[in-house]
C-alpha cells in the first residue's frame, strides 16, 4: 500500500515548484501518494518561507499543531527558506521535527527522509541537481525554474542567504523540461527565478560556445518556438535588467503574456539607494513608459515595502506619486520586516504606528486606482485562456493578466477565446464570448 504525504507550501512560486519536485520524487521513488488530510499522513512536510519575520515566527506554532494531530509514527520535515535560514536550530526548538532540508537541497529528499534528525542546508552550485523528478502530470500550466538563487544584495532581503548565489539552469535542460510538460498537456509555461531577466549571467558549467549570446531574450525566443505552447509568463523580472532588447522582445513575441511584474519597492531615490536596488525612480519610470508605448494594454504589477529605515514623509510621498503615475494593476505591499543576516538588520526601525498608517494610505490609494481602472474595462475585448471550470462557470486570464469569469458556459480548458467585458462586480470582471 502506498504511504501518504501531506505537504503545505508557503511563500513564492519557487517554493511551489520545489514542492512539485518533492511530490514527484517521493511518488516515483518511495511510492508516496498525496493526501490533504495531515491526520492520515505518514510524512508531513512544511515548505517554508522566511521573507518576513511573522511567517517564520508562526512556523513553530504550526509545527506544534501537526505534532499533535499526526499519526504516532508519522514524520515531520521542514523544507524551504526557513529551513535554510535556521538549520539545526529548528530541531533544537521543536524536537518533534525529524529532518530539515534547505531550499537549495530539495533534490536530496529521498535520502533525508531515511536519516533521523538529519539537517541538510549547505548550498552547492551544481545546477544539474535540478534534473531530478519533475511533475509530469497533466496540467495546463507548467512552472519551470530557469535560475536559482540571487546575486543581488538588496539590503532588506534574506533570499540570497537562503537560496545562495544565482546560477542559471542550462538552456537545453529548460527546453527539455518544457517539451516534456507540453507532451503532458501544458499550454502555458511560467519561467521562474528571483531575477529571470538576468538569465545567463552565470552557469556552473559554461555553455559550449555559440555565436548567440545566451540571455533571457534568447531563452524567450527559443521557448516560444515550441509549437504547442500558447502562453509564456515569467516571474520575477528585475527593473534593473529591463533593457531595450528585453522590452522589445516582450512586446513583439505574441506568446508572451502582456503582463509584467515590476517590483518597485520604493519611489524615493534615497530609499532605493539604501535598499541597494541598483536603479533610480527615473529609470523605473522610463522603463514603464517604454513598455506602455510598445504595449498600450499591458498589465503591470509591483511589490512595495513601506517604512524602510529612514524613510521620511517625502520619501513615502515619492512612492505614492509613482503609484499614481503608473496605475499598477496589481500591487503587493508590505511593512518592512527586519531580517537577520541582511545589511539593513541593524538599522533603526520606524515606529510601527507610522508604518501601519503608511501601508493603509498606500493600499487605499491603490484601491481607488483599481476601481477607476475596472470601470474602464467595460466593453473591452480580451483574449482569455480558460484555466478553471466551476459548475456552470468558466474562468480564465486575459492576455494582460486579468481574471475574467464567463457565466453559463462550459468552455475548453487551455483554449483561448475572445471575451467582451460585460460587468464588474466588486472588482471581479465578467464577460461573454464574441466573434472578432
Ligand atoms: N526577487 C524579487 C522579490 C522576491 S521577495 C525582486 O527582486 O523583486 C518578494 C517580495 O517580498 C519583495 O519584492 C519585497 O517587496 C518583499 N520583501 C522582501 N524582503 C522583505 C522584508 N525584509 N520586509 C518586507 N518585505 C520584504
Ligand atoms: Fe531579494 Fe533583491 Fe534578490 Fe529580489 S533581487 S530576491 S529582493 S535580494
Ligand atoms: Fe519566501 Fe524563499 Fe520565496 S523566502 S518568497 S520562499 S525565495
Q: Could you characterize the architecture of this molecule?
A:
The protein is of the alpha/beta class. It folds into three domains: 118 residues, 3-Layer(aba) Sandwich (Rossmann fold); 236 residues, tm_1862 like domain (pyruvate-formate lyase- activating enzyme); 53 residues, Beta Barrel (OB fold (Dihydrolipoamide Acetyltransferase, E2P)), CATH 2.40.50.140. The protein is 33% helix and 23% strand. The chain contains 13 helices and 19 strands. The protein has a six-stranded parallel β-sheet with strand order 2-1-3-4-5-6, sandwiched between helices. A five-stranded mixed β-barrel has the order 15-16-17-19-18. A hairpin with a 2-residue loop joins β18 and β19. α8 runs parallel beside α9 and α12 packs parallel to α13. The longest helix is centred in the last third of the chain and has 24 residues. The protein is globular. The N and C termini lie far apart (54 Å). The mean pLDDT is 92. The structure holds S-adenosyl-L-homocysteine (SAH), iron/sulfur cluster and FE3-S4 cluster. FE3-S4 cluster binds next to α1 and α6. FE3-S4 cluster (F3S) binds next to α1 and α6.
Give a nutshell description of this structure:
This protein is α/β, with parallel strands linked by helices and 436 residues long. The chain is built from 13 helices and 19 strands.
What name does CATH use for the topology of the largest domain?
A: pyruvate-formate lyase- activating enzyme
Report the portion of residues in β strands. Answer: 15-25%
Q: How would you name the oligomeric state of the polypeptide chains in this document?
A: single chain
Task: Name the CATH superfamily assignment of the largest domain.
Answer: tm_1862 like domain
CATH architecture heading of the largest domain: Alpha-Beta Horseshoe
Order of adjacent strands in the largest pleated sheet: 2-1-3-4-5-6
Bound chemical compounds: S-adenosyl-L-homocysteine, iron/sulfur cluster, FE3-S4 cluster
Which structural category do the helix and sheet elements fall into?
alpha/beta
Q: Main β-sheet: number of strands, strand sense, barrel status?
A: 6 strands, parallel
Amino acid at each position: 500500500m502506498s504511504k501518504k504525504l501531506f505537504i503545505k507550501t508557503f511563500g513564492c512560486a519557487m517554493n511551489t515548484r520545489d514542492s512539485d519536485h518533492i511530490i514527484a520524487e517521493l511518488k516515483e521513488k518511495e511510492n508516496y501518494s498525496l493526501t490533504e488530510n495531515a491526520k492520515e499522513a505518514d510524512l508531513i512536510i512544511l515548505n517554508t518561507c522566511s521573507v518576513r519575520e511573522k511567517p517564520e515566527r508562526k512556523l513553530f506554532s504550526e509545527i506544534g499543531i501537526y505534532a499533535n494531530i499526526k499519526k504516532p509514527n508519522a514524520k515531520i520535515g521542514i523544507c524551504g527558506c526557513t529551513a535554510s535560514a535556521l538549520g539545526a536550530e529548528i530541531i533544537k526548538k521543536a524536537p518533534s521535527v525529524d529532518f530539515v532540508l534547505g531550499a537549495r537541497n530539495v533534490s536530496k529528499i529521498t535520502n533525508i527522509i531515511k536519516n533521523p534528525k538529519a539537517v541538510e542546508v549547505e548550498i552547492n552550485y551544481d545546477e544539474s541537481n535540478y534534473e531530478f523528478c519533475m511533475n509530469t502530470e497533466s496540467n495546463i500550466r507548467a512552472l519551470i525554474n530557469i535560475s536559482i538563487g540571487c546575486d543581488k544584495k538588496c539590503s532588506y532581503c534574506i533570499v540570497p542567504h537562503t537560496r545562495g548565489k544565482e546560477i542559471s539552469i542550462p538552456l537545453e535542460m529548460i527546453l527539455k523540461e518544457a517539451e516534456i510538460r507540453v507532451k503532458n498537456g501544458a499550454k502555458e509555461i511560467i519561467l521562474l527565478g528571483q531575477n529571470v531577466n538576468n538569465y545567463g549571467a552565470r552557469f556552473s558549467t559554461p555553455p559550449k560556445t555559440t555565436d548567440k549570446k545566451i540571455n533571457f531574450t534568447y531563452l524567450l525566443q527559443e521557448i516560444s518556438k515550441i509549437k504547442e505552447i500558447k502562453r509564456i509568463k515569467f516571474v520575477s523580472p528585475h527593473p534593473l535588467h529591463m533593457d531595450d532588447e528585453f522590452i522589445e522582445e516582450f512586446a513583439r513575441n505574441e506568446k508572451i503574456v502582456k503582463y509584467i511584474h515590476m517590483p518597485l519597492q520604493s519611489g524615493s531615490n534615497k530609499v532605493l539607494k539604501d535598499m541597494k536596488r541598483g536603479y533610480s525612480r527615473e529609470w523605473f519610470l522610463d522603463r514603464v513608459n517604454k513598455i506602455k508605448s510598445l504595449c498600450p494594454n499591458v498589465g503591470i504589477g509591483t511589490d512595495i515595502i513601506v517604512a524602510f529605515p529612514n524613510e521620511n514623509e517625502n520619501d513615502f510621498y515619492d512612492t505614492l506619486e509613482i503609484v499614481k503615475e503608473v496605475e499598477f494593476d496589481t500591487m503587493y505591499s508590505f511593512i518592512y520586516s527586519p531580517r537577520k543576516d541582511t545589511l539593513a538588520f541593524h538599522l533603526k526601525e520606524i515606529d510601527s504606528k507610522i508604518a501601519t498608517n503608511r501601508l493603509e494610505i498606500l493600499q487605499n490609494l491603490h484601491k481607488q486606482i483599481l476601481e477607476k481602472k475596472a470601470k474602464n474595462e467595460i466593453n473591452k475585448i480580451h483574449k482569455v485562456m480558460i484555466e478553471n471550470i466551476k459548475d456552470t462557470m468558466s474562468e480564465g486570464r486575459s492576455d494582460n493578466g486579468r481574471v475574467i469569469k464567463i457565466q453559463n458556459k462550459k468552455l475548453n480548458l487551455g483554449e483561448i477565446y475572445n471575451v467582451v467585458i460585460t460587468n464588474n462586480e466588486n472588482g471581479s470582471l465578467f464577460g461573454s464570448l464574441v466573434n472578432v
